[in-house]
Write a structure and sequence with these properties.
Layout lengths: L1 E4 L2 E4 L7 H12 L64 E11 L2 E10 L5 E3 L4 E5 L9 E4 L13 E3 L4 E9 L8 E2 L2 E5 L7 E4 L7 E2 L1 E4 L9
Parallel strand pairs: 7-14
Antiparallel strand pairs: 1-2, 3-4, 4-9, 5-8, 6-11, 9-14, 10-13, 11-12
């Protein structure tokens, strides 16, 4: 039988105890604070001995880990990563069109359009973007949109593409002037969609001269921008 005393250790062992009991007693004594050494003696003040609760390098004790929160009532415990949230503002068609920065060249303007499959199924592309100029109150303006190229890239015609989720297609929208064009139309926004029935987004045009329009030229959807 072993007893731990502050500052010293006193061990009592029955002479008739077996070697097994003696080993068990010595093992128990090693867990006592200050075994064979009075408290505070033998310690280097500049390099103190780590406490028993301090984790060893490269070792993580289970009791030091934060508890795993229990699932809420009625909730099944998760055994894998959480599912990804659905994409934001993705139309029911699964295709969304975004407009890039304005490009300028020799009194001309253009923007690159990007179609992205934001859905969870393949999306088939075959044709031209749907483009409509809008007025201050959202009314449709009589701005002609031609399936044609410009000095920013020639139109090579439609190409059938099947976009996987996250896949993209590109098109170039250019501002053009015609000889018979009269007074320019001032638009407040463009309504863009992958196709006429694919769900449109409205992009304001404030703060730039692309608000003034005669006609617009648009290239077909392609895997890369036209050259």
């Amino acid at each position: 039988m072993g007893v731990c005393v502050q500052g010293r250790v006193r061990v009592r062992v029955r002479r008739r105890a077996s070697a097994v009991l003696l080993a068990a007693a010595l093992t128990a004594l090693t867990g006592c604070s200050g075994f064979l050494v009075p408290a505070g003696e033998g310690e280097d003040p500049d390099n103190p001995t780590p406490s028993a609760s301090a984790p060893r390098s490269g070792i993580v004790r289970a009791e030091t880990l934060p508890p795993t929160p229990a699932p809420a009532y009625g909730e099944m415990p998760r055994t894998g990563p959480a599912p990804s949230p659905p994409p934001e503002n993705c139309p029911a068609s699964g295709a969304v069109v975004t407009m890039g920065e304005v490009l300028t060249a020799m009194m001309s303007r253009a923007v690159a359009l990007t179609l992205t499959n934001c859905g969870s199924k393949p999306y088939r592309v075959d044709g031209y973007p749907s483009v409509q100029a809008l007025g201050e109150d959202g009314e449709r303006l009589p701005v002609k949109v031609n399936p044609a190229g410009s000095q920013f890239g020639r139109d090579r015609g439609p190409e059938t593409l099947t976009l996987k989720p996250g896949g993209t297609a590109r098109s170039m929208l250019a501002w053009v002037s015609t000889q018979e064009g009269g007074e320019l139309v001032m638009a407040d926004a463009l309504e863009l969609a992958a196709a006429p029935d694919a769900g449109a987004r409205v992009y304001p045009l404030e703060g730039h001269d692309i608000r003034y329009m005669d006609e617009l030229n648009i290239t077909a959807w392609r895997a890369e921008l036209p050259e």
